[in-house]
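User: Hello! My lab partner asked me to get a predicted holo structure for this protein. The small molecule is S-adenosylmethionine, SMILES included with the sequence. Please write out the structure tokens.
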Amino acid sequence: MKYFKKLSYGLENTENKIFKGDNVEVLNDIMDNYRGMVDCIYIDPPYNNDEEYIHYSDSDGFEIWLEKVSKTLSLLFELLSDKGSLWISIDDGQLHYLKVAADKIIGRHNFVHTIVWEHRTTRENRKAFSNNHEYILVYAKNPCEFKEQRNLLATDKEFLKRFKNPDNDPRGDWQSISLSVQAGHAVPSQFYTIVAPNGKEHNPPIGRCWAYNEQRMLEEIKNNNIWFGKNGNGVPRRKKFLSESIQGLTPETIWFAEEVGTTDQAKKHLKSIFENQEVFDTPKPEALIKRIIEISTNEGDMVLDAYLGSGTTAVVSQQLNRRYIGIERGQHVYDIVLPRLDRCIDNLLSGDTAIDNVGYEFWSEDNNE
Ligand SMILES: C[S@@+](CC[C@H](N)C(=O)[O-])C[C@H]1O[C@@H](n2cnc3c(N)ncnc32)[C@H](O)[C@@H]1O
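Assistant: Hello! Below are the structure tokens for the protein in complex with S-adenosylmethionine.
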């Protein structure tokens, strides 16, 4: 290992590591120790947008940019555990090129989905279109295993508001959902007239049929699982109880700013930490990374970010009690990543936390101190 251990911070014997260096070099050096062990890799590489940011340059040009990211991707995929997933942030400019390259390197059959993230909520009037979203490509070592193991999203307040109990059902709150389905694959026993308890007759809407056959429907009505509205005259609907739904929500492929934050909010957050410093230009919101990590890992699992930037992935992993490895080649490791992480660790250690793996080792290619 040609990296020099500079310092440790937080509790002793931590497994978390921050490396300062080029990610291809670092990944080659750590490969033997971590092959097949990383459960979530999130990367947010430069987007090849020809910008000179304060803390790094994004002006390699398309060919070199793609070659560099491809090299990093091929190494990253080797690190994934059996349930592991790889999440790649990118914008509209390079999404399609990167997708084709990643499919070649990783395998098309390892592709899971593209997530659309609403990264700004204000209108950009200087361009032909206001660019309000970015993408996250998701790949998995074994997509079936990933689907089995991935976590659902916690049910939120808005979701809970949909459940009420207008008939004081002792089984608790419920919401009503449609009882008719598209008739495309229907069998004849799904077409019949439902007679409500008050005698009113209901036929399925045109092009649709009932979800159950008549015998099952009668049983559901008897068991008070069908709702005919407050006055008994409404279109029949099925009662879906909160207790059936509480396990969590399947993640959707559109992630709105009000749930996972915007780039602007992420910048403001950094500004509030580093008041007298030039703010890092392209941070991701902690809420966005939290969602990725919560879907793909459990406590104690290993997370890696090979383009650490301002340290968001390391900070969120630390807060969520995941083990982490962060790689960043810029000098801002010293004045942004480490102080931000130290602050997070100080907060965790001063609070009433049961988290045991609080801290990190810092390894650097520089041997000048
Ligand atoms: C878009 S930023 C990442 C921002 C990060 N997600 C955050 O929340 O702050 C990209 C980062 O990758 C770093 N980077 C670019 N190429 C790299 C390489 N080959 N090895 C390590 N870091 C690299 C840049 O210095 C920059 O800090």
